Amino acid sequence: MSLTIHDAETLITAARHAADAAGVTVSVTVLDAGGHLLAFRRDDRAVLISGETSTRKAYTALQLNAPTADLVDLVKPDGPFHSLPTALDRPLLFIAGGVPVHRGGRLVGAIGVGGGAPEQDHAFATTAREAISR
After folding, report:
1. Most exposed of 12, 37, 81, 89 (fewest Cβ within 10 Å)?
2. Spatial separation of the C-alpha atoms in residues 35 and 96, rounded to whole Å
3. Sign of the C-alpha dihedral, residues 27, 21, 71, 130?
4. Contacts of 8 (CB under 8 A, 6+ apart)
5. Alpha carbon of 96 to those of 5, 86, 107, 133: distances in Å?
6. Cβ–Cβ < 8 Å for 99, 129
7. In terms of Cα–Cα distance, which of 98, 88, 95 is closest to 74?
8. Which of 99, 133, 109 shows the shortest CA–CA distance to 32?
9. How far is CA 55 from the centre of its chain?
10. Is the CB of residue 104 less than 8 Å from the CB of residue 43?
11. Among residues 129, 84, 85, 134, which one has the least CA distance to residue 108?
């Protein structure tokens, strides 16, 4: 089982609907299990950097198989992964808004949302993930 382009479009649409309902403009990135871009969408009025942050959040959630919201404290100065963001030459971003996507108990991809407050981005991404698990 893999994440399809149809799944990716469903994720993007659901995240954008959740963001629209909250009055927030966002960028949404969907990656497959290999970290390859499946879909990307940036609202016309979203800040430009939201495209980069949404992609990095998705990548981080995928690589660590965990929501980025759960990882924030791990990279603080006293956290066990404090040096991880600088130790690797990878586009990791430890800000809420990235969530892994599983199917049949297997990691099949990730979604990242950027543009709102971190808690909002996390909620939009989680709402989107639920849209394909129905």
Report:
1. 89
2. 18
3. negative
4. 30, 38, 39, 109
5. 24, 18, 19, 21
6. yes
7. 95
8. 109
9. 7
10. no
11. 129
Per-residue pLDDT of the chain (134 residues; tens, 9 = 90+): 899 999 999 999 999 999 999 999 999 999 999 999 999 999 999 999 999 999 999 999 999 999 999 999 888 888 888 777 777 777 889 999 999 999 999 999 999 999 999 999 999 999 999 999 76
Residue recorded with tokens 């599983």: 102
Q: What backbone phi and psi angles, to 5 degrees, belong to 112?
A: -130, 140
Q: Quick one: residue 107, left, alpha or beta (phi over 0 = left, psi -120 to 50 = alpha)?
A: beta
Its pTM surpasses 0.85: yes
User: Rounded CA gap, 32 and 100, in Å?
Assistant: 10
d(CA 130, CA 126): 6
The residue among 4, 12, 20, 18 whose CA lies nearest residue 108 is 4
Q: Looking only at Cα atoms, what is the longest distance across the chain?
A: 41
Q: 68 is written with which tokens? A: 């980025």
Give residue 11's identity as a one-letter amino acid code: L
